[in-house]
Design brief:
315 residues; alpha+beta; five-stranded antiparallel sheet; four-stranded antiparallel sheet; binds zinc ion
Length: 315
């Protein structure tokens, strides 16, 4: 756990060049979603993502910008993940035997996804309430559930969608009990996929990250039509929940967090003491100073980043 909080990690994440890459990825995905789904009920939100961190205002000390806060936005997700680790990480790191559990049901079509979500939420609620009933055997035998639950949905081949839970729960006995109760209530689920392992840094990241993988490894570019359908279904849905008495810490605004973690020395060296305004131009994939025309990063987007956006840079 402690390495999640070290400065090296933070520095890597919030350097100016990383901001350029995530802006590039986020802009590319938002354009794809917006232009391929003109009828989408959330097209306005895709537009907001196109404008996310578009303008950066430097006042001689701090760089200020505004964020779209949408769940598909690469830029916002990066910061949201860091915020979540700080907000929830400490309580989880107090666990003596943290277990990482994955709970699933068979994949479904987009039409059946809302029903699938309801079913899985109901299943979890039943299991949790059952565990708390003092007159029942599990409670008498010492089952006590405490932890965090993350709801996620990924695209699968054949137009299928895979809604699933990741949990970090204290204690191996509790984890085995959850798994067996899940299989009782969801007999269609493949027992092999209902996975339990000791939670480590990777599982913490898995739970705290907010990134929806926009395309599978076998695809060349994101399927914007299918992604739009998924985001429409997931709209307004909560994807992180605590249980068993963990406290929900106060939220931290992205803008506020950004001001705290940004490297003032780096900004000073790069931009000096006077104010400047930088506006993103997608033709140069960089922020351009309003008056001087200077580029903020002045580096090419690496091929590996372009590939991540699903763009064949050779065309
Ligand atoms: Zn954003």
């Amino acid at each position: 756990m402690p390495e999640l909080f070290n400065n090296k990690n933070k520095d890597k994440k919030f350097s100016l060049q990383k901001q350029q890459w995530t802006k590039y990825l986020s802009y590319s995905l938002a354009c794809g979603l917006f232009y391929n789904n003109p009828e989408s009920e959330i097209s306005k939100s895709y537009q907001n993502t196109m404008h996310c961190t578009e303008v950066k205002q430097y006042d001689g000390e701090n760089m200020r910008t505004s964020y779209c806060k949408n769940r598909w936005c690469t830029t916002c997700n990066r910061i949201r993940t860091a915020i979540n680790i700080i907000r929830f990480g400490e309580q989880i790191s107090q666990f003596g035997h943290p277990q990482f559990i994955t709970l699933t049901r068979p994949t479904v079509s987009i039409e059946d996804l809302p029903e699938q979500i309801k079913k899985m939420e109901a299943s979890w609620r039943q299991i949790y309430n059952y565990s708390k009933n003092k007159r029942k055997t599990p409670y008498k035998e010492g089952i006590r559930l405490i932890g965090i639950r993350k709801m996620e949905c990924t695209l699968r081949p054949d137009e299928k969608y895979h809604y699933h839970f990741h949990l970090i729960v204290e204690g191996l006995n509790n984890a085995y009990w959850i798994r067996s109760e899940w299989l009782k209530r969801n007999p269609e689920s493949d027992p092999k996929v209902q996975d339990i392992r000791t939670a480590d840094i990777r599982s913490l990241m898995e739970v705290f990250k907010y990134q929806t993988k926009s395309f599978t490894d076998t695809e060349e570019e994101p399927d914007y039509i299918r992604l739009n359908k998924l985001f429409e279904v997931m709209r307004g849905k909560r994807t992180l929940a605590l249980f068993g008495g963990l406290k929900v810490p106060p939220d931290i605004e992205l803008e506020e967090f950004d001001l705290e973690v940004q490297k003032k020395e780096e900004l000073q060296i790069r931009l000096g003491n006077h104010a400047s305004t930088w506006v993103w131009h997608s033709k140069v994939d960089d922020w351009v100073e309003k008056e001087t025309g200077e580029l903020l990063i002045n580096e090419e987007i690496p091929e590996a980043v372009k590939k991540k956006a699903g763009k064949n840079s050779k065309v």
